[in-house]
Amino acid sequence: MASPRHPMPASPSMKMEDERRRESDDEDMKPLMTEMESTKNPREIPMGNAPDLGFVGRTISNNPEFFAQAAKFAFCFFGLQASYLTWGYMQELIMTTSFEPTERVPTGKFPSAAFCVFSNRFLAVIVAMIAVKIRHGSIFSNNSAPLWAFTPCALSNTMSSWSQYASLKYVSFPVQTVFKSSKIIPVMMMGKLLKGTSYPIGQYIEALLITVGVAIFSIASKTPKEDNTTNLVGLILLLMYVFFDSFTAQWQDKIYQQYGKKNVDPYQMMLGVNTSAICITTAGLIITGDLPIVWEFLAANPVVLKYNIITAITSASGQLCIFYTIKEFGPIVFTIIMTTRQLISICISSVVFAHPISLKAFCGAALVFSVIFYQIRRKYNSKSQRDGGGGGQG
Question: Rounded to whole angstroms, how far apart are CA atoms 252 and 42?
Fold first, then answer.
């Protein structure tokens, strides 16, 4: 009796032929052909460079984390640029434009820088409350630092913001923008005063070069028609801004050190500072009697209220973008983005508001930003060496 025939095992060539046949049957269901397969099915080659599309698809699928980080960086970059470029433009528009005059404001200029600060703080408090409630489950009960601890920096933050708005009546926006870059020496001195922090001599030299660049820019930007008294008032306001802003940053860092960074997150800091600040600005508006004046002015110029709302929204969104950027990429990348924003702000202000920038002023600004980028590069190289040598995380 003949033994039963068993099916012969399929050879590798037969398996490959079967796979090719199944691929041919299912070819219409393939979303993307590889470069080798596309030569077998010419009718599936799209117009243009099909190999390039295949390469891009494979690159994205092979590097999902890289493209996710690139998307986050793009969100941070454009979020910060859109927020603070819009904020800076609206800030200058409010304080320098001549609107419809009123009985109490015959000049037509917006009468109260304090109200601009109030509107920014009002929305920031609402946003901070929502963020803290979502993150911690309650608004104030889980805060380790008491509200009074934020009062000194809230007062200084209010004064710095007021000085910044008020200075635009006396100096141009480019002068103010570059002047902000001269805060390094005051910040270092304030750190020495409040916390006893010491700094290497190289950082003092860098700060001095930035201050020289600011002086060159400010002097070169001055026109012969400008009144010396007006320039002096503007200079005093800018010095007030630098002093109070330097105090704010160092006091906030002191709060982090005193109560612990794990116990006070940026959203709680935002809530504490803005809660105290809105109490201060409200009291200031009542004491100075600005509220009825502003009310009358806004009634005659409702567009100014819209400008204030836009400024408040972009100020709050900018703060949230700052927290997210530092969390995801660290302070070095954040500094690069904000330095780029300062350069773009000067260019936009010069074009829109016709602020001329002479060659000398440009050289002064170039000196300032060259030192800033040198600092960024130095900090980046130092961080890279520490991470590479010590095995730290990036």
Answer: 65
Encoding tokens for residue 142? Answer: 């889980």
Give burial (CB, 10 Å; 0-12/13-18/19+) of 364.
buried
The amino acid present at 196, given as its one-letter code, is G
Spatial distance between the Cα atoms of 192 and 250, rounded to a whole number of angstroms? 10
Q: What is the pLDDT of residue 135?
A: 86
CA angle, residues 123, 184, 226, in degrees to nearest 5: 80
CB 161 within 8 A of CB 117: yes
Say what the pLDDT of residue 330 is: 63
- For residues 372 and 210, is the Cβ–Cβ distance under 8 A? yes
Q: In whole angstroms, what is the distance from residue 314 CA to residue 120 CA?
A: 9
Report the chain's mean pLDDT, rounded to a whole number.
74
Is residue 186 within 8 Å of residue 210, measured between CB atoms? no
The pLDDT assigned to 139 comes to 83
Tens digits of residue pLDDT in 133-156: 888 888 877 778 888 888 898 898
Task: Give the model's confidence band at 319: pLDDT under 50 very low, under 70 low, under 90 confident, else very high.
Answer: confident
Alpha helices in the chain (DSSP H): 12-25, 35-38, 50-62, 64-96, 113-136, 151-167, 173-179, 184-195, 201-221, 228-259, 266-288, 290-300, 302-352, 359-390
Crossing angle of the two packed helices 113-136 and 64-96, in degrees rounded to 10? 150
Give every CB contact of residue 184 below 8 A, 6+ residues apart in sequence.
Answer: 203, 206, 207, 210, 211
Number of Cβ within a 10 Å radius of residue 73: 15
